[in-house]
Design a protein that fits this description.
Helix 4 packs across helix 11 (about 335-350). The chain starts with 6 loop residues before the first helix and ends in a 7-residue tail after the last strand. The chain is α/β, with parallel strands linked by helices. It is about 30% helix and about 15% strand. It has 12 helices and 13 strands.
């Protein structure tokens, strides 16, 4: 019997790709955030001029919300910024793998007309031959005007700072902090609920936030929590869901003990889901010499009993803890969170280099000095 060798019997058919129209998930309009305070307060953003950004502790509520306002204008493309940084070079030095942080910083710089040089793998640098971060910092003084660093070691940034003379931005250092991720987190939340910026809300409208993770050794969760404490007037309670006996650690215990926000702890997510307005989740921690995943006890899907208006944030990359069935729902603020990172990082770079007045039209710029300055 002869074998059928007609074309139809052996042609490999390409998979059908269905492109989704528009954007996926919850996409709040940046215009809603700037509606109540349209002018950019130059003196507030000028506090960032020449600054390194090593910790979320650099930001108070005024600085964070003004930076978010600036980012909203940039996202709406209200300003011409295509040549604002044409004379600047950013070094993106990533000694630990990254997708969103490295690419969003590089995209931000390129949109501003600047240039980028990159270290995408620490094994390709002199570190592989024993070079110190101190000496690498000295070299960056000659190569770039600003440096974004991610490293597995918590102390790497402070070592680099010993010789570095240009601004340094922490892109995530070990299990310590990731301050610009927290800026992206809160930029998404402020667009979603602009009213938490302005005044004090009635108690029934204040947020109940759930944090799934261990702030003591998850850098994104730690920085997010630090910025959350700035909104104590409009946050009712923060509940941390973790299997660890001490999810905060000593530093955060000291920081939170005097906060007017009630900080609670739980090992049962399902019993609390119906009370949460915001869920911030992460399942990856850098502990010791590698990544650890904590996704077994706490996970979410479209079957979870989440309030209809609850939003979910996740710094990504995700695993089994955040099911894709939530992607096409209004709960999904995590894609908007990732999208907004480009704009908040553009705003940050412009402020660090003192270029705010160069791109904001005079009629939209509030030049009032800060009190007592």
């Amino acid at each position: 019997m002869s074998r059928d060798v007609s074309p139809a019997s052996h042609v490999c058919h390409a998979p059908v790709i269905v492109k989704r129209p528009g954007k996926i998930g919850n996409c709040p309009n940046p215009a809603d955030y700037i509606a109540n305070a349209p002018q950019i307060r130059r003196a507030v953003l000028d506090r960032l001029r020449g600054q390194s950004v090593l910790s979320a502790a650099l930001f108070d509520k005024d600085l964070l919300t003004e930076l978010a306002k600036f980012a909203a204008y940039l996202q709406l493309k209200r300003f011409e910024v295509g040549t604002a940084m044409s004379d600047k070079i950013m070094a993106a030095a990533f000694f630990e793998p990254s997708t969103r942080t490295r690419l969003s910083f590089e995209s931000a710089m390129l949109h501003l007309g600047g240039k980028t040089i990159s270290v995408a793998d620490g094994k390709t640098t002199g570190v592989a031959k024993g070079e110190s971060m101190r000496d690498i910092g000295q070299m960056f003084n000659s190569y770039a005007d600003v440096v974004v660093v991610r490293h597995t070691e918590q102390a790497a940034l402070s070592e680099m700072c010993e010789y570095l003379r240009v601004p340094l931005i922490n892109g995530g250092n070990g299990s310590d902090e990731h301050p610009t991720q927290a800026l992206a987190d809160w930029y998404a939340l402020l667009k979603w609920r602009p009213e938490i910026t302005f005044g004090r809300l009635p108690e029934e409208f204040r947020l109940n936030i759930g944090i799934i993770g261990t702030p003591g050794n998850m850098r994104t969760v730690k920085s997010f929590l630090m910025l959350a404490l700035l909104f104590h007037e409009n946050i009712n309670r923060i509940t941390i869901f973790s299997e660890m006996a001490d999810p905060l650690g000593e530093e955060l215990r000291e920081l939170t003990k005097n906060s007017p926000i009630t900080i609670g702890f739980s090992q049962s997510l399902t019993q609390n889901l119906e009370y949460l307005d915001v869920i911030y989740m992460n399942a990856i921690a850098y502990i010791g010499d590698g990544y650890r995943f904590f996704a077994d006890a706490f996970s979410l899907s479209s079957e979870s009993r989440i309030k209809p208006d609850t939003v979910i944030l996740h710094p990504l990359a995700r695993g089994l803890e955040l099911d894709v069935s939530l992607d096409d729902t209004p709960h999904n603020l995590y894609f908007n969170q990732a999208d907004g990172a480009v704009w908040i990082r553009q705003a940050l770079l412009l402020a660090i280099f003192g270029r705010v007045a160069d791109v904001v039209p005079p009629d939209m710029l509030d030049n009032e000095p800060l009190p007592n300055t």
